[in-house]
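Support reply, case 0932

Customer input (verbatim):
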Amino acid sequence: MTGRRYEEIAAGFSKCRILVIGDLILDQFVWGRVSRISPEAPVPVVEVDRETEYPGGAANVARNLREFTPHTYVLGIIGSDPQGRMLKRLLADAGIHVEAVQEDPGYETIVKTRIIARHQQVVRVDRERKIRPTEVQFARALAELEGMLPGLDAVIVEDYGKGLIQQEFADEIGSLVRATGKVLAIDPNPQNPLRWHGASVMKPNRSEAFAAAHRPPSEPIEPVENDTAVSEVGTILLEEWACENLLMTLGEQGMVLMRPGEAPYHTATRAKEVFDVSGAGDTAIALFTLALSAGASPNEAAEISNHASGIVVGKLGTATLNAAELQRSFANLEGQ
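Our regenerated output:
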């Protein structure tokens, strides 16, 4: 895809209206340095320099979208605790619409704390308690979705397996969105095996795809076109999920897009260096969905998604990218 064609597609990004549904997480980063080992145990002592917080999980998908369109909405549940209030404030301060975010005093906001020393993650501390939504919360979420759908171009379901996305909720989302003909993008979680049917795009990574297809993991083969295991898994999932597009992210091998009756389309990674893969999948589904909504073909959307993911893995933390960075990535391709 040429840089000029990218600019034609990108011109429509700011008009796209996209809702993200999923598990909302607060990502905390504790940044410091290690200069000694603890006398109490053979572990490093991290001397803290600073702490930062970012929207994580499904909230990070919304954060990626907000860099390109002001019409970004999020639907999920947080606790009525300091962490939940911070997460909601971070989203609102970023210009993301949070009217469909429910606060529940009985819910504990999910927090992932990463300790980083000299650009290396030392340990991650997770604070989470999976709680199934109540009937009242479920009904309110569906009412919010139904009311918003006429004004949307796409819906992304980001399942981090933390309890929000249950089968009945998944069924209702699929039914409502398909009835409107809007783009429906799903990032499934193999630890929360649900029946999905008829989505515009399903986006598992390689390990998730193999798990969903009940196939044992295998070592990647170069070139990807000769990796029969990937082709077999893709064929199984296209039939099982009855989706229009299957976008399988392959890490250092980039992505492969599969469609019923068509040859797989492989786009090689654009990453120059890989510092942190946190949130790369969020970027991938956000930009693929955004590009489809703006009129890109599936292959073009895969190229845009791949360029975007290649940028964020070169950053530390739960990173996003902006429009200028993505435009430069395509401009650099033109100059090669």
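We compared this against your earlier run and they match. Two observations from our side: DSSP finds ten helices and 13 strands in the chain. The two ends are 13 Å apart (CA to CA). Please reopen the case if you see a mismatch on your end.
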